[in-house]
Automatic annotation (TrEMBL):
Top-level division of the source organism's lineage: Bacteria
Transmembrane segments: none
Database matches in Pfam families: HTH_21 (PF13276), rve (PF00665), rve_2 (PF13333)
PROSITE patterns from the UniProt entry: INTEGRASE
GO MF annotation: an example: nucleic acid binding
Job description of the protein: Involved in the transposition of the insertion sequence.
Domain Integrase catalytic: residue ranges: 103-267
InterPro entries: HTH-like_dom (IPR025948), Integrase_cat-core (IPR001584), RNaseH-like_sf (IPR012337), RNaseH_sf (IPR036397), Transpos_IS3 (IPR048020), Transposase_IS3/IS150/IS904 (IPR050900)
GO biological process terms, semicolon-separated: DNA integration
Protein name, UniProt field: IS3 family transposase
Length: 271
């Protein structure tokens, strides 16, 4: 009926199977590359987005199936929490100016800050981080063995020196004694920043920076061997935050771009 010989049909069919097999082989290699290039942190949604950027036409489900075939699995969250907020103090509390409005219209409009615990064989460590709500970039951070005012002050100074924000930036944090201290409040005033603090016991008021710390622990800490020394922790966190998270890791809330790339595009658009 099709005027094709039996041998010709089977030759076409085998060639079609061969082409599909070759395509899957190439696709599998790219999936494996993206998986290990992300230090085994990317799951099928992010790898799918990276493949689309490269020009592949493929479904996210197909990526997930191939990852399962190859035994590739993104790191999973682990339930573990150390309390780092000491709100039992008599320092002044700033009003909740942010009010869970996590949307920003430009870089250096709203920053959120928090402290989290970092496990280490050599002793306790605490990480103070500041995140820009527009770009999702970690604009300042500091690691220390003590949860003091100096810890958060150094993270703030680093962020200010790096970005030089204009007057009126909203700086939001929890009610911790470090952020409520006289020294920190005076530094915010000198930088012409508007302080904002979460309501007591409400973690949702600072959800964005809490989410970053959760991602950091899932991808950089709990999925890896425990840091043996404080120096190793400093080096690994520097590499993760500065080179991977800020400059390379795709973020779903900003179109699967890295924070640095997203900020660059903003300034190009307003130039």
């Amino acid at each position: 009926m099709l005027k094709v010989s039996r041998s010709g049909y089977y030759k076409w069919k085998s060639a079609d199977v061969s082409e599909r097999a070759k395509r899957k082989e190439k696709l599998t290699k790219r999936i494996i590359w993206h998986y290990y290039d992300s230090d085994e942190t990317y799951g099928s949604p992010r790898i799918h987005k990276e493949l689309l950027k490269e020009g592949w036409t493929v479904a996210e489900r197909t990526v997930g199936l191939i990852m399962r075939e190859q035994g590739l699995r993104s790191c999973m969250a682990r339930k573990f929490r150390v309390t780092t907020t000491d709100s039992n103090h008599d320092q002044p509390i700033a009003p909740n100016v942010l009010e869970q409005d996590f949307k920003a219209t430009k870089p250096n409009e709203k920053w959120v800050a928090d402290i989290t615990y970092i496990p280490c064989c050599q002793g306790k460590l605490y990480l103070a981080s500041i995140l820009d709500l527009y770009t999702k970039e970690i604009v300042g951070w500091k690691l220390s063995g003590r949860m003091t005012t100096d810890l958060v002050m150094e993270a703030l100074d680093q962020a200010y020196d790096s970005k030089k924000p204009g007057k009126g930036l909203i700086h939001h944090s929890d009610r911790g004694s470090q952020y409520a201290s006289k020294e920190y409040r005076e530094q915010l005033e000198s930088y012409q920043m508007k302080p904002s603090m979460s309501r007591k016991g409400n973690c949702y008021d600072n959800a964005c920076i809490e989410a970053f710390h959760s991602i950091l622990k899932r991808e950089c800490i709990y999925s890896k061997p425990k840091f043996k020394t404080k120096q190793e922790a400093q080096e690994k966190l520097f590499q993760y935050i500065e080179f991977f998270y800020n400059r390379k890791r795709s973020n779903s809330t900003i179109g699967y771009m890295s924070p640095v790339r997203f900020e660059k595009l903003y300034y190009q658009s307003v130039a």
